[in-house]
Structure formats: C-alpha cells, structure tokens
Amino acid sequence: MSSLQFLQLMQLADSAAPIGAVAHSFGVEMLAADESLTVDDLSRFLTDYLIEAGTLEAAYCRRAFAVSRDYDEAAWLTLLREVGALKPARESRTASASLGKRFLQMAAGLSGSSVLDRADKGARAAKVDIHYCASFGLVAGALKIDEDTAVLAYLQQNVTGIVSACQRLMPLGQSRAGGILWQLKPAIADASRASATYDSPIIGGWGANDVPCFTPMLEMASMRHPGLMTRLFIS
Prior knowledge:
235 residues
C-alpha cells in the first residue's frame, strides 16, 4: 500500500467522516438505559461484540473487497441482500444502510471511481440497501488499499464509534475510553484474522451461515430502542 493510499484510508476511517455515524448507537443506548451495560462491563462487552458481530462484518467487508477486483453487479447486490438479512433489528439495519449509502457516495465523489459510482447507482436502481461493512470493503478494494489494513481500520472505527456513544451515555471519561480502546487492539486483530477464514476468492464460494454471529441481547436492545421516551441516538 502506498503512502497516498494510507492517507486516503486514514481519512475514510476517521470517525469525523461526514456520514452521520455519531447519530447511531446500534442498540447500546437501550442497554445503557436499562443498566444492562455499564462502564465496568464495556471492555468485556466489546470483546464479545468483536468475536461475534465484528467477525461477521469483517468477513463481508472482505467479500465486498473481492467484488471490487472485477466488479460484478449481481454479486454486489447479492452480498448487500445477505448483509441485510443478517440484521434482524430494523433500527440497526436501517442505520447500517444509511451509513453505507453515505459512505459510498462520499468515497465515489472524492475519488471519482467509476466502480464506486456504478455500485451506488446499481444498488439504488435495484432498491437494495448499501450496508456499511460492504461499502467500506468495496471502497477499499476500488482504491487498491491493502485488504487486511482496511478490515482492521473498519473494525477500529466500528468500536471507536460505540465507545464514543458510551461516553455520552455513561460516566466514561476520555482517559478510560482511550484505555478500553487500547486494550481492544488484540481482539480487533483476532476478529480480522478470523474473518479471513470465511473469505473466498470465488464470489459466493461461502455462505452466510458459515459465519458465526449470535448477539441476541444487542439485537433485542435495538428492537426496543424506539420505545425509549427520550433518546440521544437514532438507533
């Protein structure tokens, strides 16, 4: 990966990227509201999250990366539909689609990539949601960014967003938040490595059921989130 590609990845993976990520907690707000998740639980919770949801999303990020090598619209749309089917909670599914669409459009506008433009227009024409993990992988592949580095950046951004949400929901200071993120680095690396075992150079060579993911508490929290009387986050 060149210095230019590294700098591009840093900008794309920046939590300040204007895609609306700060508006979503993906169910964590509900867990904090009913005290199912506290500051003391956060490190363990995020480690488990990376083992389950992190590995799943990283696997689809890799699969989207593979789609970009020789763009196939049918494979791209199938991939997006699979990701959506694996998100049973409407709020989290909608949040993922919102972030993915904005991210892809932002990257297409910045880079001028014809692949990204075609992927965006193809999904919109088919009325298929563009999920964030797939969007990130496709963008990284189109820009020739190293795959493993891109997946690590995606996972890092993912958990950073959750920790940032927790800072607004719990008595979590900047120093402790930074310490939690530092301690999670091995779990991020493990999730990235695990996701590679589900990847295939042949698109469609593995099925969604091959990637283990079981996060019932978080999914139920996302489903219950609209019932909160006062909310800081959309999801």
